[in-house]
Amino acid sequence: MRLTILGSAAAEGWPALFCECPACREARRRGGRNIRRRTAYRIDPDTLIDFGPDAFWQSTAFGIDLSKVRHILLTHSHEDHLNPVDLLWRRKGFSSVGAPLTLYGNAASLERIALAFPEAPELYRSELKMLSPARKVPVGDLQVTPLEAQHAGPQETALNFVIEHGEKAVLIANDTGWWPKNTWDRIQAFKLDIAIIDCTYGLANPKERAHHLGALAVVAMKERLVALDVLKPRCTVVANHFSHNGLGLHEELCEWFAPHGIEVGYDGMVLQTP
Fold first, then answer.
1. DSSP assignment of 5-26
2. Of 104, 159, 149, nearest to 127 (Cα)?
3. pLDDT over 90 at 72, yes or no
4. What is the 3-state secondary structure (H, E, C) of 140-206?
């Protein structure tokens, strides 16, 4: 599998919209990997994970032909991960694309999409499929197992994903705090080649584990996965989904995580399963 990080920021982006804090001013000054779009991913040519407000920017920046995308996996319904308005432009008259698109998500995500469509999803060449934690589903050539995240509270069950192709497996675990017990139990069924872990609270609140993770909590999650024998020997572990409130620009984050064998995500980062 070939995975591209299309965005690596939390909800506000980085530099954050309307913000003049030192972390945002410095990101603007340095540029490069310190400019972070809202978090999303592509796996191989036809599958996206999340479809947020930066989809147009991401597709043009990284040469993605959205007409070739057949599957979108949605982690949850929050606005930085799901922008259903842009799905309207698949309708005849706005787009010439003829191939169907399947959107997979929890009840809250699919409800937001259905509410955005003034007509039946079929007119937008789209199909909606519900996901439930621990129930593996085929997604094109992939097998996807949703896992319960600790993020959105009682309003909805946010999802992390283990995505498999043959013997290769990738974990997408942004927008989560410390996992509930059932997720820790279920992850033990997998052997991961790549693990991407939430780091929203960054260096400012490194021990935080509620709804998102800080830098020390990322290290603790990696250590727990190692202890459970879930990570393959050459597994690549990446911290991702950063808020400007978490402080630490890209270079400082790389220096901090290097002793722990953890890489720092950035927009355009490409990861390949060995």
1. EEE-B-TTTBTTTT--SHHHHH
2. 104
3. yes
4. CCEEEEEEECCCCHHHCCCEEEEEEECCEEEEEECCCCCCCHHHHHHHCCCCEEEEEEECCCECCCC
| Six-digit token string for 8 | 């690596």
Whole-model pTM: value is: 0.96
Pairing of β 192-198 and β 168-173: parallel
Banded pLDDT at 263 (limits 50, 70, 90): very high
Sheet arrangement for strand 263-264: 137-139, 142-148, 159-165, 168-173, 192-198, 231-240, 263-264
For 120-140, the pLDDT digits (tens) are 878 888 899 999 999 999 999
Tens digit of each residue's pLDDT (9 = 90 or more) over 108-119: 999 999 999 888
| Rounded Cα distance, 35 and 28, in Å | 7
Nearest-5° Cα angle at 113, 209 to 90: 125
Beta bridge partners of 139: 142
In tens, the pLDDT along 139-181 reads 999 999 999 999 988 889 999 999 999 999 999 999 999 999 9
Under 8 Å between Cβ of 58 and 269: no
Could you tell me which residues are beta bridge partners of residue 263? Answer: 238
Q: Which two tokens stand for residue 157?
A: 């069950």
User: Among residues 257, 8, 46, 7, which one has the least CA distance to residue 163?
Assistant: 46
- b/e per residue 28-51 (b: at least 16 CB within 10 A): eeeeebbbbbbbbbbbeebbbbbb
The answer to whether 228 touches 244, Cβ cutoff 8 Å, is no
| Residue pair 100/90 in contact by the 8 Å Cβ criterion | no
- Cα separation values, 120 from 84, 116, 126, Å: 14, 10, 9
- Which CATH architecture group holds 2-272? 4-Layer Sandwich (3.60)
